[in-house]
Write a structure and sequence with these properties.
- The chain is 35% helix and 27% strand.
- The protein is α/β, with parallel strands linked by helices and 240 residues long.
- The chain has a single domain (5-236), classed as P-loop containing nucleotide triphosphate hydrolases (Rossmann fold, 3-Layer(aba) Sandwich), CATH 3.40.50.300.
- The strands form two sheets. It has a six-stranded mixed β-sheet, with helices on both faces.
- Helix 4 runs antiparallel to helix 6 (141-154).
- It is globular, with a radius of gyration of 17 Å.
């Protein structure tokens, strides 16, 4: 472990019941980095995030946060450490307003980090500022994604686990989400990003892990990945 490591996944096997999804997965994220996990559907990306977050416990191996073993912490305890999952489904409360969603997130969040106030979070996302009294169910997909990220910031996250944040969004909204993630990283927030959109990963990430069939098969910088067309073809089926 390096002195700057914030998250560590060490030789983790994990899955659901009798089904093993992750096999000997190891990765690390250092303070201030944006690191991506990329791979085809069913490769194990979301399972990795759920194992870090505490929804799943490793069958073997361990997960660490700032050197402490958090393998057996539940999601609430993990969030109190400042590690927040923004799930692909967003999971905002549809019958609550934007402001009420954020006010609720302010309770039970991180204990040792400086959380954003509700008004600060709303100010970070211009679209939300125009819709503070709108119910979650009335928001567009992009607005729901921004609300889900804002909710994590109000809860005091200094490490964001983003699961497919651009999934299903129009190209212009994808660009907006990319800009938001970059701005948050500039503010000092560390990001572990799961994406199928390789172009988003290459634009945002300092380093990338490719996962295939529950195993890390490649790791390196975005600059290096751009030049690994054989790897991109074999594991992702894309050309950049």
């Amino acid at each position: 472990m390096s002195a700057d490591e914030v998250l560590g996944v060490e030789n983790v096997d994990a899955g659901y019941g009798e089904t093993t999804i992750l096999r000997d997965v190891s990765l690390s994220v250092e303070a201030g980095e944006i690191v991506s996990m990329v791979g085809r559907n069913g490769a194990g990306k979301t399972t990795t995030l759920r194992t870090i977050n505490g929804i799943l416990s490793p069958d073997s191996g361990r997960v660490t946060h700032r050197g402490d073993d958090i393998s057996n912490l539940d999601p609430a305890a993990t969030a109190k450490r400042g590690v927040s999952l923004v799930p692909e489904e967003r999971q905002i409360f549809p019958e609550l307003t934007v402001r009420e969603n954020l006010q609720l997130a302010a309770h039970g969040g991180a204990e040792d980090t400086d959380s954003m106030s509700v008004d600060e979070a709303i100010g970070q996302f211009s679209n939300l500022g125009e819709r503070t009294d709108n119910h979650g169910s009335s928001l567009s997909g992009g607005e729901q994604q921004m609300l889900a990220i804002a909710r994590a910031l109000v809860a005091g996250a200094d490490v964001l686990l983003l699961d497919e944040p651009t999934e299903g969004l129009a190209p212009q909204i994808v660009d907006d989400v990319v800009d938001i993630v970059r701005d948050l990283n500039d503010r000092g927030i560390t990001v572990l990003l799961v994406e199928q959109n390789v172009h988003v990963c290459l634009e945002l990430a300092d380093r990338n892990y490719i996962i295939d069939q529950g195993t890390v098969v490649w790791e390196g910088s975005s600059e290096r990945l751009r030049n690994e067309q054989e790897i991109l073809d074999r594991y992702l089926g894309v050309t950049v």
